Structure formats: structure tokens, C-alpha cells
Amino acid sequence: CVGMSDCYDVTSIGIEERELPLFTLAPVPATDVLNVELTRSARNAQFTVLDMTGREVLRRNLGSDRKARVDVSSLVPGAYFIRLQAEGAARVARFVRE
Fold it and tell me: Are 29 and 96 in contact (CB under 8 A)?
């Protein structure tokens, strides 16, 4: 039995996609300092840095600040994830520590 429905174009995006990105990272790759900047103001923003195994290696509250300079010099060179949580939303990005 084979059937095929009509094709439809889907042009709308969801709310989550419109809010992305919640933050930007620079420079990537990072050596000593990673700059985290929220793309809009958020209350009680918090980020967590995770290693590739999912182990938390760093946590920081941003409060109402939109920018943070994160000292990553103590991290072992390699790939990491940074998870930012703010106002019920969470986003994850990957960065490299050289």
C-alpha cells in the first residue's frame, strides 16, 4: 500500500526559534577570557559551563547584567558546553578553550 499526501509549504517559525539566540560568545576559540552577552535583558540569568561528559565545571549568576567576562584560563584545553538559563528559557552553545 502506497499513499502520498499533498505537499505544503511551511513558512512560519515557532516562538522558541524567534527568541534565538539568547546569548552570544566571543572569542571562539577562547584562551583566557570568554565574553558572554545576552541579546536582550533578562532577570536572574545564570550560566553553567559543562565539560564534554556533562560534568559542571563552572557556574555564575549574571543577575540583571547583559554582559559577563568569564575567566576560562583554569579550564583544561578542549571543547565545552555553556548552558544559559533565564526567564524560563534555556539555551546551550559549544565553545573551545585553547
Answer: yes
Strand spans (E) along the chain: 23-26, 33-38, 45-51, 56-63, 67-71, 78-86, 89-97
Q: What is the largest CA-CA distance in the chain?
A: 61
At 1-50, the pLDDT tens digits run: 666 677 766 665 555 544 545 789 999 999 999 999 988 888 788 999 99
Residue 88, C-alpha cell as written in the block:
524560563
List, in order, residues 6 or more apart from 82 with CB less than 8 Å away.
25, 34, 36, 47, 48, 49, 50, 92, 93, 94, 95
Cell of 48: 553553567
